[in-house]
Amino acid sequence: MLNLLKKSLNSSKWVKSGDGVYRNEWNFVPEVTRKVMREGLKINEAGDDVTQLFILKEHLQNHFINLNEKWILDRCILDGYVFTRWLYEQGSVEKWVMNYACSLLSMLGERLDHILYTEPDDIPIEDDGERSINVQFRNDIVDIYEDILSSSMSTPGCDTWRDKVIRLSGSVDQRMNTIESIL
What angle do CA 62, 74, 162 make, to 5 degrees? Predict the structure, then answer.
């Protein structure tokens, strides 16, 4: 989806800078999980405290790279919180890491203009060698998203982000039209 968005927003002028960000009028920041995986940390179901702290650090850093520019993040702190919560529920992440993720969601969520959530039924599971293809893991993650998107009681702290969520559904073209209409 990020690649389609780059094409849609004047792709001929995109330049990938040394920090991995594609820059133009809009700056595209690739997802943080694969970056952390390339640094040798376990991701998805195998994640732990260290993995999540590195991922949360990346989310925090994304908000302070350049405050005065337009950014589109492939993943945001909501994703970091959801996966941390799943790992916490499995006993793989300690409570203080979970609390830190929740606090970052409150703090960083306030800085986001929009959070785009693609309906999971519109995205098939594909084995790309990095993304988990475990159906139960995916279903658990979707359940956590649905829980926190539908109830403010599901995330303690300041609810600074919930009204910024825009659900994307339909074909790729339909989703792209929705995105373009908000930008």
Answer: 80
Q: How many whole angstroms from its chain centre is CA 111?
A: 14
**Cα separation, 23 vs 14, whole angstroms:** 6
User: For residues 14 and 33, what is the distance between their CA atoms, to the nearest angstrom?
Assistant: 23
Could you give the residue ranges of the DSSP H alpha helices within 42-94? 49-62, 77-89
The segments of the chain whose pLDDT lies below 50 read 1-2, 4, 6
Look at residue 20 and give its three-state secondary structure.
coil
Task: Give 28's strand partners.
Answer: 22, 72
Which class for 76: exposed (0-12), middle (13-18), buried (19 or more C-beta within 10 A)? Answer: buried
Residue 141: strand, helix, or coil: helix
Q: What is the pTM of this model?
A: 0.83
Contact 101, 52 (CB under 8 A): yes
Q: What is the pLDDT of residue 157?
A: 59
How many angstroms separate the CA atoms of 94 and 31, rounded? 24
Residue/partner pairs of 141-148 with CB below 8 Å, 24 or more apart: 141/82, 141/83, 141/86, 144/82, 144/85, 144/86, 145/82, 145/117, 145/120, 148/78, 148/81, 148/82
How high is the pLDDT of residue 14?
53
Bridge-based pairing of strands 22-23 and 15-16 is antiparallel
